[in-house]
Design goal:
The chain is mostly helical. The structure holds iron/sulfur cluster and zinc ion. The site of iron/sulfur cluster has 13 residues, from helix 3, helix 4 and helix 6.
Length: about 140
Amino acid sequence: MLIHVIFFIHEDYKLGNIGTDSLESIINHERMGAFLEKKPALPEQCQSCEFLSLCHGGCPRTREDNGGGVEYFCESYKQLYRYAHKRMEKLSLAFKKRELEKFVLKGFKFPGRNEPCVCGSNKKYKRCCEPVVKELQMELSY
Ligand code: SF4
Ligand SMILES: [Zn+2]
């Protein structure tokens, strides 16, 4: 299922009024497609950016405000990602470990290495939670 986050960004992209129009008419509005088409058309700077998987090139509107080039807030985003990304990864790993520990302690049967991971990431188990589970199993066996 495709889920769109709808928010007001500019009169030119107005799709309707959530209070008076049906959700169906808003989602199927002809302007929706035109707006979504702007997303993948990223400038070279974004395509080779180390933070692309986090930023996705920013917002098409603020790219337009910046003359159709790189996102207006690009430098701010980079500062934020440089500061927070590793910290967030660390936090995420700690959270993942805490949750997986409950499964390990209960003797849960984890999937095969090439099967989808238990966490819902859509990655193979071996490329996602398996290393964390193995580490936990080692720690808990001592
Ligand atoms: S941080 Fe800047 S260069 Fe990188 S993807 Fe975002 S807008 Fe593009
Ligand atoms: Zn996982």
